[in-house]
Amino acid sequence: MTAARSAIDWVRHAKISPDGGSGDLRAYKVVNVSDYPDSIECHTWDGTDEGDETVHVARPWWLRRTPFHGMTIDGILYTYMGNTTRDELKGGKTTRKTIQAPYSPGNIIWATPDGRSGVTVDDKALEWIDDNRTARDWTAEVGASDVIQMRVQSADDNHIVARTWDAEASPQEGTTDIKVAKPWLLRLVNWEGVTRDGIKYTKIAEWQRTALELSSGNSRLENVEPRYFLGDIIDVANPVVGDVALTVMGEVLKNQDLNAEARKFHKQSEFGRPGILWVCGGVNDARRIFVIDPTNFCPICELKSPGLFPSGLGGDHDVMHHCDKNTDTFYKFNTTTLEIDSEFPSIDITPNGMGGTVLNVWHCDATTNLVYRLDPDDYTVDYSSDLGVDTPSGIGGDDGVVWMCTAEGSGSLIFKLLASTLGLISSSAPAFLGTPAGIGGDSTGIWYCDADDNGIYELATDLTVLRKRIGPADPVKGIGGKLK
User: Fold this and answer.
1) Predicted confidence (pLDDT) per residue in 213-225, tens digit
2) Pair (255, 321) in one structural domain
3) What CATH number is associated with residue 447?
4) For residue 168, is it within any domain?
5) 98: burial class by Cβ within 10 Å (0-12, 13-18, 19+)?
6) 470 lies in which domain range?
């Protein structure tokens, strides 16, 4: 065994994001907005009738008064006139701003429970925080003559590329690309790597981010809705007003989207443990290991694998097991630190498949054609099985069921094995099989990859294809993970 060493060349796109789930979301009716600087006084609301119970709901952090009043942040001095209007002084220029779509008695808001709101009323910490489904934000007072319409061409992290638009003109669309600042809330530069209320935000794409709850280590996915698409018509303030000026490649932008469409980041799932999918493939300099978001099959991060011929992998949230034909080595990766915890010589000649969890590791060899259960600590053999097949190419499972595939000799087949003995339960040759390269899964579902079309598949346990996408490696050689 060698000492633990760092995994090389990680490209960290984002933390893994969860899928599914729904939280406790409740509706409240606003009754008082003027007496509380950081919250709203509400009554319960069942969709038809207003209740008698009074509930104080914390405002989102950026709509509160206390964190900003009298403070200078990023060169801006904030001075509040009440709880919904403020002046922002920067560079000798003062801009009056109000909350767009202000809170008013009678409004219905949606709130979620959040013990980290940091807001107290009458010495009581508030449990609920406004989910801000109407995308309230601070907006400068702009006259109608200062607003122009533009047609979106593309969207970047912090700005949009657009062209002037006049529905009454001919042609309607201008010919010059103009950079337009996004609203402050949608600019990734204001969220990337920032921690607020115990949540750290990390960019995935210009329209998507993860929110990592530091106290638990759990994440959730958040998307901008509605997204910016080619052809969208947006209202633009010209010249830019109010928000912190945005500079792109040395150019101070003079236009800003007024967000008339109320775009905002929406939670796609609640905090919870995500599914996880591992894929390996390629050879020599193109060799890679990928962490895949199982909700959309998009790569989250990638690693140049430690050997020249990655041939199998699998794991769960806590560990990933990997084998390489070139180095004839087993590697154990820590999924939190993204480092190789340990490595061991392979037990046979041609390691061709590997998978498992913290408790069990499964392995197959393409020369001996044996299938193994290995000790998860040091990869020594617990027991082995000769199923009479040729060239097993992938294996993975949990403590209940093990899945294996073969690519040559015996033909393209998928086998279902009993985990306790590695005895055969069934074998199948579904029509989608080309050259099976890797397989993994458990009693709830299966991941499969095929070297013929470089496809990665989600399969039901009856081998029905649920989803398919072209894999990120060429050729794909191994796959494994957990559905949830």
Assistant:
1) 888 777 777 878 7
2) no
3) 2.130.10.10
4) yes
5) middle
6) 5-15+275-482
Sheet with 476-482, edge to edge strand ranges: 11-12, 298-303, 288-293, 276-281, 476-482
Q: What is the identity of the amino acid at 157?
A: D
103 Cβ contact list (under 8 Å, min separation 6): 30, 33, 40, 59, 84, 109, 136
**In angstroms, what is the C-alpha Rg of the chain?**
28
Which residues, in sequence order, are bridge partners of residue 194?
Answer: none
For the chain, the domain total comes to: 3
CA 373 to chain centre: 33
Cβ atoms of 437 and 422 closer than 8 Å = no
Give the domain-ending residue among 237, 267, 297: 267
Q: What is the DSSP string of 147-213?
A: EEEEEEEEE-SSEEEEEEB-TTSSSSB-SS-EEEEPPGGG-GGGTTT-EETTEEEEEEETTEEEEEE
Distance CA 288, CA 304 (A): 5
- For residue 422 the two structure tokens come to 């590695």
Q: Any residues with CB less than 8 A from the CB of 171 and at least 6 apart, and which?
A: none
Quick one: which of 432, 16, 476, 439 has its CA closest to 447? 439
Average pLDDT, the chain: 82
User: For residues 53 and 84, what is the distance between their CA atoms, to the nearest angstrom?
Assistant: 25
Classify residue 291: in a domain, yes or no: yes
In angstroms, rounded to a whole number, what is the distance separating the alpha carbons of residues 201 and 149? 31
C-alpha span between 329 and 319 (Å, rounded): 16
Tell me: do 335 and 471 sit in the same domain. Answer: yes
Dig out the tokens for 414 from the structure: 């998928």
* pLDDT 10s digits, 263-300: 888 775 444 445 678 899 988 888 888 888 777 777 77
Q: Which two tokens stand for residue 479?
A: 């796959």
Tell me the pLDDT tens digit for each residue of 9-66.
Answer: 333 322 222 222 234 678 899 998 888 899 999 999 887 888 888 999 999 988 999 9
Q: Is there a single domain that holds both residue 447 and residue 351?
A: yes
| Same domain, yes or no: 170 and 76 | no
Cα–Cα dist 435/68, whole Å: 61
DSSP class of 419: T
**Distances, alpha carbon 276 to alpha carbons 8, 20, 348, 363, 458, in Å:** 21, 13, 29, 20, 12
Task: Please report where in the chains the tokens 């890679």 appear, as a residue.
Answer: 288
267, 298, 314 — which closes off a domain? 267
Distance CA 64, CA 262 (A): 19
